[in-house]
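User: Could you write out the 3D structure of this protein bound to zinc ion? I've included everything you need below.
Assistant: Certainly. Input first, then the structure.
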Amino acid sequence: MRATYLLAFLAVLATALTASIALADGPHAPGVDPIEIDATIEQMQAAVADVRAGRRMQPKTWPGGARVAVCISFDIDNETLWRTNPIPALLSEGEYGAMEALPRILTMLDRYEIPATFYIPAMSAALHPQMIKDILQRKRHEIGVHGWVHEEPSSVGDRAKEEKALNDAIAYLTHEIGKRPVGYRAPSWDFSRYTLDLVQKAGFLYDSSLSAMDSPYELLAHGKPSGVVELPVNYILDDWPYYEPDATGSMPSPSAVYEVYKGEFDGAYNEGGLFVLTLHPHVSGHRSRIVVLDRILSHIKSKPDVWFATLEQVATYVKSQH
Ligand code: ZN
């Protein structure tokens, strides 16, 4: 019996070691080029040049003299997260986002009377058409693009295929919301070597997928200003890494997550910056976790001089100041 356990343990250890070696030195995603260990400095510079942080676009003040701009955003991935492994039990975890979580979240946002931004893969919306209707009915929220079926651009590996998925997603949302969306958030915040060019070509006002600064900034495409405003996200201000066993583990205490969000908000408030929170309805919309959203909104609302805005409003304002 002991020998069986030992063998099983060794098998798990071997799998883990293989996985970590693959991560460090394995095949790269088809949509990006690897940096070799004998790369020159010039090759390193060229390798990172597709998408870089350009000029900082932090305005001197926010509208109305506010100290901080607060964007509450939701990535409504739902069933599309399990695109490559659509097992009914897993799909139902995503389905929860439409059935229970989003209605609960919208009701809470109503109570605080604040706007929010929702990024929706077209297929998530197609499976639950009521979601967009319920969001639009509030008349103060923004809806942005989040892929056709939550395809991660770096895994697509083909410019034409990536562009078709993006254009199909834009066309679907344009039809459903009655106007062309101006904001892009890449599925899994993932860019390929083509993504910024495609975002630029599609005429997006802003992107919200990258993390190089706390402030809004302009994205550089191949070293040149792209005209695309980046409203940065960060995994610290996400719910996925804290709760999802698929990520790094499942944090048992929503209160600890609240403390992290609060620390980030207090810092943004003191500095006079931007606060972008990203939640997934099917992750944060559960009974024990929705309390975190309630507490952070209550904390933010207790402060004077806060500008609650959609990301579109922030990007438009930031651009007008430069
Ligand atoms: Zn997503």
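Residues 1-24 have pLDDT under 50 and may be disordered.
User: Perfect, thank you.
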